[in-house]
Amino acid sequence: MVGSVKSWVQGLFHDLMGFADYGVTEERYRRLRKNMVILGVLGSMLPLLLMAMVNYHQYQKALAAEVMQPLRVLVNKTKHSFELFLAERASAVNFIASAYSFQELADEHTLNRIFRVMKTEFGGFVDLGLIDAAGVQVGYAGPYQLKGKDYADQTWFHEVQVRGTYVSDVFLGYRRFPHFVIAVAHLTDDGRVWYLRATIDTEKFNNLIASMGLEPLTDAFVLNRSWVLQTPSKFYGKVLDVCALNYPPVSYEPNVIETWDQAGNEIFMAYTFFVSPEFVLVVVKPSGELMKTWVTLKSELFILFVASVVVIFLVVFKLTDLMVKRIAESDRKREEAFHGMEYTNKLASIGRLAAGVAHEINNPLAIINEKGGLMKDLIEFSPTFPERDKFMGLAESILQSVERCRTITHRLLGFARRMDVQIEVLDLNELMHEVLGFLEKEALHRNIEIRLLLDEHLPRIASDRGQLQQVFLNIVNNAFQAMNDGGKLTITSWDHDVETVGVIIEDNGVGMSEETLHHIFEPFFTTKKEQGTGLGLSITYGIVKKLGGDIQVQSKEGAGTTFTVYIPKQSKQVVGG
Amino acid sequence: MDSWKVLLVDDEIEFAAALAERLNLRGMTTTTANNGEDALRCMERDRPQIVVLDLKMPGMGGMELMRLIKQKCPSIPVILLTGQSSSKEGADGLDGGAFDIMVKPVRIEELMQKMREAMGQTRSAISGEKG
């Protein structure tokens, strides 16, 4: 009956307090570690990657611009030279057309003289012809016999009729060497039209290109709009060949593009279109040469990047490891603190409940006690009581049950009791002797050997004698109950540190299972079945904690149990508090 | 056998009645009272030699009653009974002049022993005073 009530209360408390397992799963930390590494690597790698990419492009752009700019300038300058050269020739022809009349120029001597002067003054002139409105060459000065030639059907003649001035593409013509033509139309005051046509050697073009002062691998040439070479190229064909390079987008400003030639080499192609004549000046420079520094820089940047990545990985891994360890450590500490707090709270609530229960039960119990006692008294004091022995036994049984209840309620009250702590300076060794004094007879009777390894120089401590007695009595009592007759109990005391002294009570009794060890200080937990209230060690724990100390227990089934108690030298409990 | 006039004060009538009868069986002359006022009347009427009283009673509590009893009769020994042990009450009780405090339920032999001790002390104190 009493046992079942006890187990019911015990069950209730286990439910109420929720003895949860606070096992920290390794899985959680593994996940945390993984997430932190990913985040850390992403967090530091992404900006690095982004920056590397931006830098790469910017640098490449800057470097390309640096390479391109001189090319652009060179192309522009050369274009101007070409334009100047052509304009000069055209204006020379124009001047003659304006300065002389048709009749004067038609005179062979005059034409020859003018031609000679032009050749010496300007250079590059191959011949000079005077053509009438019908397209027939009426006067000619030059190395060939072209007087009387009819140009009426030729393209250049139509062009000059329409535009007034004409510069032809380069062609081989009768003379089998590259040259081009400048033709101008002249309108006389009386409304007649005639034409002056000069042929110019392209040798002058080559001179202009040569004056660019190009590096050996750089090529420069002039093309017409049909992409036919007007000057010879080092790498892309002879004069009047179609150039092998791709036709670039039309641009009258100097432009540079990065492209490939037919051999697959990367090149910078700088070019500009002429307005008139319809030429294109092209400068080709292999980019490999130019970008050599960039390639070097690129590989250096790459090495730096890889090294940074490695360093980042190492740092992230190391930091993560450190942080996860710290987190695990603080989790563990928090759980311990939480556990301890819960334990204290649990003890306090149980204390309050126990006191209430004990008080409520004690009064009716006292009535049962007195009634039962009276019954027994009446039977005892009346020798002639019928069936005396039987009733005597019944009454005795009632009183024994009351006695059992009384033990429980008194212990409950003892557990709940908020005893005033009375601090005095005491010798812990002496106290141990006092405690053992209570159990001397039992030890003798059961042939239990008690070994005392007490530190002779143990400092005196300020603590509560009565409560410490109860603590050690409880522990030693438990040890006695755990041991068979002939067992061995060892008690050691030592000066633990500046603030605490320690006592170890070690028995070679039956020991405890892990499970038992886990619940050892919980109220109502007992292995003694009907004999124990399960409050002894719980009270012990409460007192030690109240005195500011600590208690630890180690046990091995079949080998024995060791209790270690730490008591502060100066009680942290305020006297009377 | 010792024989004293005992005043037993407890609000639990059943408890008081049974304990009184048991004490009487052991040679005492016990009067019971179930509250403080009753107890004070009994004091006047029966002139008990020892008082056993419950600490916790409705109305006038045990402590107050003890104070009044001690006022009238400082030398009379008082044994306190309580359903719940508390060092505060115990200390207050002892400070208030109680001979001792016992936690219910009590063993009759223990109570008898306590009473004997109380009476012995009182007697020796009285005889000491006389001597």
List the topology elements.
The complex is a heterodimer of chains A (577) and B (131).
Chain A: H1 2-17, H2 26-99, H3 102-106, H4 108-121, E1 125-131, E2 137-141, H5 155-163, E3 165-167, E4 179-187, E5 193-201, H6 203-210, E6 219-224, E7 255-260, E8 266-273, E9 279-286, H7 287-290, H8 292-381, H9 388-416, E10 423-426, H10 428-446, E11 449-453, E12 461-464, H11 465-482, E13 488-495, E14 500-507, H12 514-519, H13 536-546, E15 550-556, E16 560-568
Parallel strand pairs in A: 11-13
Antiparallel strand pairs in A: 1-2, 1-5, 3-4, 4-5, 6-9, 7-8, 8-9, 10-12, 13-14, 14-16, 15-16
Helix pairs in contact in A: 2-8, 8-9, 10-11, 11-13
Chain B: E1 5-9, H1 13-25, E2 29-33, H2 36-46, E3 50-54, H3 62-72, E4 78-82, H4 87-95, E5 100-103, H5 108-130
Write up this protein:
The complex is a heterodimer of chains A (577) and B (131). Helix content of chain A is 53%, strand content 18%. With 577 residues, chain A is an alpha+beta fold. In chain A, the strands form four sheets. A five-stranded antiparallel sheet of chain A has the order 2-1-5-4-3, sandwiched between helices. In chain A, α2 packs antiparallel against α8 (292-381), α10 (428-446) packs parallel to α11 and α11 (465-482) packs antiparallel against α13. Chain A is rod-shaped and about 185 Å long. Chain A starts with a helix and ends in a 9-residue tail after the last strand. Residues 11-24 of chain A have low confidence and may be disordered. By secondary structure, chain B is of the alpha/beta class. Chain B contains five helices and five strands; from the N terminus they run βαβαβαβαβα. Chain B has helices at 13-25, 36-46, 62-72, 87-95, 108-130; strands spanning 5-9, 29-33, 50-54, 78-82, 100-103. In chain B, strands 2-1-3-4-5 form a five-stranded parallel sheet, with helices on both faces. In chain B, α2 runs parallel beside α3. Mean pLDDT of chain B is 84; it is low at 127-131. Chain A binds chain B through residues 355, 358-359, 362-363, 365-371, 373-374, 377-378, 381, 402, 406, 410, 413-414, 417-420, and chain B through 12, 14-15, 18-19, 21-22, 25-26, 81, 83-88, 91, 103-106, 108.
